[in-house]
Amino acid sequence: MTKTASAAAPLSASAPSLFSDPGTLGQRLVDGYLAVRNETERRAAPLSPEDQLIQSMTDASPAKWHRAHTTWFFEQFLLGAHCAGYAPFHPDYAYLFNSYYVSAGPRHARAQRGLLTRPTADEVTTYRKHVDAAVVKFFQSADEATLKALAPLVEVGLNHEQQHQELMYTDILHAFAQNPIPPAYDPAWTFPASTRGGEDWAALNEGIHTVGHADDSFHFDNEKPAHRALVGPVKLARNLVTNAEWLAFIADGGYRTATLWLMDGFATVSNEGWEAPGHWRKADGEWQIMTLGGLRPVDPAAPVCHVSYYEADAFARWAGKHLPTEMEWEVAARAGLLNDAFGIVWQWTRSSYSPYPGYRAVEGALGEYNGKFMVNQLVLRGSSLATPAGHSRITYRNFFYPHHRWQFTGLRLADYA
Questions:
Q1: Which CATH superfamily hosts domain 201-415?
Q2: H or E element: which one contains 268?
Q3: In this structure, are strands 378-381 and 207-211 parallel, antiparallel, or unpaired?
Q4: Does 25-177 carry CATH code 1.20.120?
Q5: Which residues of the chain are modeled with pLDDT < 50?
Q6: Could you report how far apart the first and last alpha carbons of the chain are, in Å?
């Protein structure tokens, strides 16, 4: 976002559709590609070179690295593989900016990305411009059959970059939260307004429903195949859990009551000294939260965010409820029964991140994109305030380890009673 824009409005413009918008396919590819690439630069614009270098923990990456990695993706998988005569911009960049694609070659250690003082942020900008020019030229010169065959790869690359756009916000927020004098990414930023209305609970009667992505519109491979699942009877909370409810959990000793927690969760609470959600800190007896707008008082009416699965599960047990499964969430969201399903916080489910029946990863290096992570993680559904516009859909399966909480993660409750 810009230094004056408010995040209460959409955080980015949607990329043009590669298949339905007017114009030649080549022009649609150019427009869609540049829309996403420019959004990355817009998000990076308020950051100083020092901001772009910082890596505040192993799970986060520097903004400079995000900008370079997403560029390497197009250089590696599009230009290098399909554009005759293209030479890499720099011989070392594939090593520096590969992430986890083992099939694509060796890579710099993830935990040491913050040590990469070179290339500089300006040199990464030059790298991005070089690759962008080559990609645009390729789109404008390749024949229609070639472009049609490569359009799915381009869509993967653009959606991959949008994922990194979200990480740019969450990673710099985590870094800023470590500062004793808390900086603001955007002083004008405000938390999105939530919606509350209708009955508190939405009932799903027992039934067999189709879940997963069922058509040929863009999706990641982990969203397919569509399949039938038995769902219900269950009730899902229409509304997200709020800070006011979380403050009551804290006041009731929620973080100190071992019987509310999974064993690994309580061990994490004890080892990490958690007393509240991530980015919360107490000042003069009042809870404050580090936001993209700087340090702010905790708003009791706002949905709670920056909570781990362990915390979400413990809160649900404290409330006498539980978390929904991802299938329950999808059926309720498809029926329009949930307030704020998208655009504020990702919502934890109690479903493990595992393959759907009949799942097959795509062939080649891109097959490493999702499938090899299908163990020891939990599924989140919806989207967050940091998710680029146009990147959300009902079947989207986000996933993180149960202790992770630097993302904009929250929850809604479910009840079998």
A1: paralog of FGE (formylglycine-generating enzyme) (3.90.1580.10)
A2: helix 263-272
A3: unpaired
A4: yes
A5: 1-15
A6: 43
